[in-house]
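[#protein-structures] MJ: dropping Glutamine--tRNA ligase here for a structure pass
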Amino acid sequence: MSTEEKSLHFIEQIIEDSLSNGFPQDKLRFRFPPEPNGYLHIGHAKSICLNFGLGLKYNAPVNLRFDDTNPAKEEQEYVDAIKEDLKWLGFNWTEELYSSDYFQQLYDWALAMIKNGKAYIDSQSSEDMAVQKGTPTQPGVDGPYRNRSVEENLTLFEGMKNGDFPEGSHVLRAKIDMTSTNMLMRDPLMYRILHRHHHRTGNQWNIYPMYDYAHGESDYIEQISHSICTLEFVMHRELYNWFLDQIYDDSKVRPHQYEFARLNLNYTVMSKRKLLQLVQEKIVNGWDDPRMPTISGLRRRGYTANSIRKFCDIIGVAKRENIIDFSLLEFCLREDLNKTAPRVMAVLDPIKLVITNYPEDKEEWLEAENNQEDESAGFRKVPFARELYIEREDFLEEAPPKFFRLSLGREVRLKNAYIIKGESVIKDAAGTITEIHVTYDEDSQSGSGSEASQRKVAGTLHWVSIQHALEAEVRLYDRLFIDEAPDSHKEKNFLEFMNPNSLQIVNGFVEPSLVSVQPGDKFQFQRLGYFSVDKDSAEGKIVFNKTVGLKDAWEEKGKKEENLLMNTQKEINKYVKEKDENNANLILNSIVANIKSIDNYSLIIHTIVKNVKNDNNSLLFSNLILHYSDKVKVKDIEEEALIKLYSMSLKSQLAAVRILAIENLQNDLNHFSLLEHQLIELKTKEKNEKVLQLLNNLKI
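AK: finished. structure tokens for Glutamine--tRNA ligase:
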């Protein structure tokens, strides 16, 4: 096998096999079939890149077909947004089509199926139908209307079409097999009554086809050769083929369905229903909120089409579900922006810096490189003067040894400018530093080649000249959720994992070269990250969105939290061994503070369960987390692990473990009653006064 063949993903291999077996290449045809009931998100980007990528690879047409069969949820706004997203991603479709284009044909085929005894009108309630269909382990049974006459079915179906019946009174079902092991084959719905206005057909129809019926038949009408969908449709393939069997003409191309693993991304949700909830409840500011995983949200935040296409290319096409780290998407973005984004200087948390030995009336325009990764980017001029803004965090009055920024008596370089030395500060009545006074070395200008300019200093700071700087609103966006799998936890609402710091708005200052920026323009704010001009910008008001930091802050935070918990667990041993009560309390306070600072819900749960073992210190650690963390409640712990934790803790030789277990049980009445007998038994044997006092206060 050649290197090229080895690099083919499995869908490409299927197509190659089709061509090898005689399928004409000019008959290849693909489609991207979104339902216009929401905005596209990053998960759809994988399907978009796959389908349109196949079209480009095989020089085959790719249709954009809107599966618009549910007017209750679909809107023209979504159609327009989907088209805009596709164009922005860089893809062009062959034909713009709609399932609603085929409503008459689908209806005619349904009539033929009724006449052939393959479909019937069912008048049961949805609840009765659900019972009648059985369960995955129990076959269904025939419903009371399954054997209606063809004439009665035709009459009822015509009445449904004409709007003679209320919603929910009748449905059209395919007559297949009520005992099939595939529950989707147990007489699935084909049509339901909906007295709703359709965004394209208006009020022409009172019945609308179900997705499973319309999708495959639409593929057939369009002569799609390879119908590619995600793995959740594997069980639908049998039904897809059954519907095709009813209409297939062997003189035409018969579509075949193939499934690939959808894109699952951590720290976000991909459900349109949940994304819609975020929009409707105004938790975010619309579908294109830069915190949303929608393509329009990513675009507004400053993502590039190239970075998203690259991301989809890296993750590839597979048959098995897996979860992709959000950091990979951010890596692709940084890699792209690093090559293309001009470097500029901005200060987001300003503090005034005065160069006391720089002439008050002097002004210089210094040369600054636009992008060291792009030789063609050239240079720009930035103004330099006596009074500047620097970042507040870039100065400490008294700095520790590894602080590589400005402090009193220490030298640093100002980017593209001079070396300065901290001399003194001015403070307000509250003791807050309001000004930093420094001196500069006139011979140390960057790029001058002088001996002074080559002097080694602690670090390099970015800055802006106060008299020249432009004020800007800067929206600091972060991930929308603090948990890596916010919608995967039983009995937890995904909204419980919202990141309270997902948006912070600050007023900063940027260099004057940005005076004419336009929405969508992208820059690297040196030492701060990548930023994009938001559409809310107007004349005299620049608004920037933080697109992504220069480093993966979340990976660093995750590692810090893991390390913090590991180090905290080591502190447990010190706490247990400490004889002095005051020292022990100091250690305990530190342990509790660390526990309270951890945001990662999954990490907390895992740590609690992992430490449910026959070890006093581990049991103490689990009980402390359960007691003091505000991110987890007893109902979040698996029942078996929780009971084991309580039971083992009450038997622990360490009084501190028994005390915490009793206190946790006092807040968990459901398990208190289950372990009451063990508490009573402990009360008869307990010798520690504090534990006895707790037990005596219990109503047992």
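MJ: nice. Residues 555-697 form one domain.
AK: one more thing. Confidence is low (pLDDT under 50) at residues 1-5.
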